[in-house]
Structure formats: structure tokens, C-alpha cells
Amino acid sequence: MSNLAASQQNSSLSLIDSVDLGAVQNTLAKINQFQLVVQNTLKANHDYGIIPGTSKPTLLKPGAEKIQMLFGVTSEYEVVERIQDYDKGFFAFTVCCRIYKNEMKITEGVGHCNTREKKYVKQDPYSMANTCLKMAKKRAQIDATLTIASLSELFTQDAEDMQGYLQKEQIETMTPQDAGAIKLKFGKHKGKTLGEIYRSNKDYLEWLAGQDRTDAMIKKAIEIMFAAVVEKGSNQRQQKPPQQQDRSHTSKGANSKESMTNNTRNQQFDNEPFVIRDEDLPFDL
């Protein structure tokens, strides 16, 4: 045995000799108990996902948040790498999540996302930049959470194991701007964004959302767009003086008809009609 190998072995033995085995056994027992609590507390298909053919379930954001609550810890986030290339349309973010207990750092995790990932490459990268930042933050949170109580034994965050949940993850962080930027890949409006279709043929989107075969992401995007329009219209009504509101409902004539022709109306989520100009739609970039 070489002197270097002998020195390393002696160092390892010295480290083991300094360990309180009783304390280690107690710690391992508590870890096992906590893992059981986690397994009994988290809900399948909400806190974690079970993907056929994989050895471990995949921890999702709601599950990570519950685990942090069980531990009574807090998390802080820092963007440690940021690439925003507006000329080439490439955006990438790396986020570090640090978990604290009583102001003492317990662990940290790292998450990365960029607009060249498979689920983003066919979409407008400029509208996906904020989504990528949110994804990186979420992945960092889950990465840090998995190190608590050795939860990596129970869950995975392997990207290859998450294919069934990538769409769900994207839906959870979708904004009205994200929704309006999604392009259809089929039908008479193929190649157009949902925002463009809303302006020219809103009825088509209502029909599309009601079809069983429509992709879940498209349905959710349409729902988010209509809901955002309703919310903005409601806010506009609340800001109008009462006299102005009355005139907006009773005015008739050529000017009124022209105004209705040039503006977008939506009543799907509200019985009271309202008017929003196309340039003020909440999914405009």
C-alpha cells in the first residue's frame, strides 16, 4: 500500500472514530420517520407525479412547498446566471434556491431553464423568457427540497422522468401574454397566434375550447385569455364614473355602432357587457 493510500485510509478511520454512532442511528431513524410522514401527506398527481416505467415519482412544486412547511423552513432565490440575447431570441436563466431555518442556511439547490428546450423551440422565445425564469426558480426549489431528509431516495427531478409533466408545469406558470403568443399548428388558423385569432375570430376560440380533442394547453391558454379580458373589463367599469357607465350602455347611433365594430366585446365569464379596445387587450406584448 502506498503512503498516500495509507494516509487516506487512516484519515477515514479517524473520521469514523470521531462519529457518535448512537446519534447517527437516531438521525437515520428520524429521517426514515419523516420520509414516511412525507409519503403519507403528499397527494399523487398533485404534489408528485407517477410516470409509468420510472423507478421513482417526480416531485412537483406543490409537494415541495408542503415539505418546506413541514420543516418550518424558508427559501430565498438568486438568479446566478442570466442570458438575454434579444438579437438571437435566446434566453436562459440559472437560479439558486437557498433554504433557511431560523436564519441559518440548511441547503441549496440549482435550477436552469432556457428557450431552446424542446417544449419552447416552436414558440416565440421573446414571450417565453419570463416563463423560463419561473421554471428555473421552480426547479431550484425542488432541487433544494429533495436534499432535505434525503428525499432524493423517494422522489426524482430527472428531466427524462418528467416528460409527462412538462406540459402541466408550463400551464401552471402561463400568463395571458404566454397564452396569446401560442401558435396553432392545425386548422384554418394554422400558424397564427391565439392572440391574433382572438382579434379576428373569437368565436373560433370558444368553439376550440369546447372540443374534447383540443390539447389541454390550448384549452387552458384560451381560458386564461378570456378570463384576463373579463378581469380587465371589470376593472375598467369600476374606474368609470357612474354617469359615464350609464352613457356607455344607453348611447346609440352611428358613432356607437362604429365603436362596437372597432372594439372587442366579451361576455363569456360575465353577464354584463363591456368594451376593450384591441390595443388594450391584456395579452398584448
UniProtKB/TrEMBL annotation:
Compositionally skewed regions (Polar residues) per UniProt: 251-270
Domain of life assignment: Bacteria
All residue ranges annotated as the Exodeoxyribonuclease X-like C-terminal domain in the record: 184-211
Basic and acidic residues bias locations: 275-285
Positions with biased composition (Low complexity): 236-245
Residue span of region Disordered: 233-285
Name the UniProt record assigns to this protein: Exodeoxyribonuclease X-like C-terminal domain-containing protein
